[in-house]
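protien #1 (seq + structre)
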Amino acid sequence: MAEKRPPWREYLTDKSVAGAKPREGKADDVVWDVAVVGFGLRMQASKTAQLRGKPLLRKTWIVQKRLYYTFDESGKRTGAKWIKRRLGSYPNMGLGKARERAQEALGHVEAGDDPTIARNKQVQADSTTLGRVVEAYLAYQEQRRPKSHAWYRSRLSAPGVRALYRKPIRDISKRDIRTALNSVDARKHPVTANRNYGALRALFRWAISAEYLAESPVVGAWAPVEEDSRDRVLDPHELAAVWRAAELKNAGVFGPVVRMLILTGQRLREVSDMEWSELSGLDGPAPTWTIPGARAKNKSAHLVPLSPLAVRILRSVPRVGARYVFTVRGENPFSGFSKAKRKLMRDSHTANWRLHDLRRTVATGLQKLGFPIEVASAVLNHKGPTFTGVTAVYAKHNYAEEKRAALVAWAARVGEICEPILD
């Protein structure tokens, strides 16, 4: 086997280029310029000329640059990816012009606008499968909205969507989207079908921003089912039945979660993930629960005044661990809402309501008690009226006192509705 020689490097001059020839034993050799890294002169001996006894060299200006190294699974470097260019032949192109062309070509590579890089990116984009884009999108969601990550993974792992994983994303058509959506029977599972549609729409909208494709195939594909805006509010008899079922011993940790939903009107995860450190003044005249902005839907910290009834419920919760209020083992907040809610509906003999409907029930109850809509919105941590100009600078009232009066009055009303239970 021929001995591998180190690269030949020197400062090229017109004189050295004119007299350059391959090193002994090599018919194809390169001398690299030390002035412009990656630029050199390639010398190739013509075999047909050598057969005639007349050595003939073909000299060509070249430039090359390493883009990246390649590694195996153990992390060992196995090779590298290079970009190589032929700039012209010598003596048709002189040394000065060749150096100028080399610097220009290397500049294009550094800037990322080299034609080969563009072609490689295009080929890679054309062959990127939906499965790879889904994984990239889920990684993005995990960083941006950790709590929604599991929801998106579940929706984008539906059988109809997974069937398209191996297909290049740029080849996915509107018909493919419709087929994926039709894999769920919208008549039996209308909400699931619509949520899958929403997840796909969000995925492709993100894929456009990430330059995986130019147009979304979901555009023009209607949602499987037209959903009506929910207006379900539990009547007093239903509310009393739910409260009674939530007080049963077999309701477990879910029982006080439901009762706090009824008393505070806050969102399910905000209540279920409540931490002891968020509670203050439970022994004083103005007990409060502060939901940090990191846990609030609108990213704004929210102060929830606690009524005496709410404090009484919190004090009845066994303290398991130092962090979460509603927990089974102390390590994580309570979960398993679907199963617990089905049992609650059976025990309360109620039907056709969701946990989020309790929030609407609270808002409706506050209005019936005579509290203005802006106070109810403040209790629910909804964004208030939009102000502009100078008004927006000064309209910073947080309705703290109004919220306390509203929730204390609402707790009293709940006590009236559930009077046989609370005695």
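ok now protien #2
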Amino acid sequence: MIEVPIEDMLEKTGSIFKLVMLAAKRTSELNEGYKPQVEVTKNKKNAAIALKEIALGKIKFTLNG
């Protein structure tokens, strides 16, 4: 279950598209073995961890180019 309201995460990213893309990329990184940047309790899914990182400002959306 998501612990942070979506409105808070949208303030960090600016749009639902950026939020979804950022969460998907970060979830993939966590699935590959990257270390979480927040404290994780047992049985947390990587998607929930990614959303928590975004909400706390640990992960930011940037455009390459």
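The longest helix spans residues 16-32.
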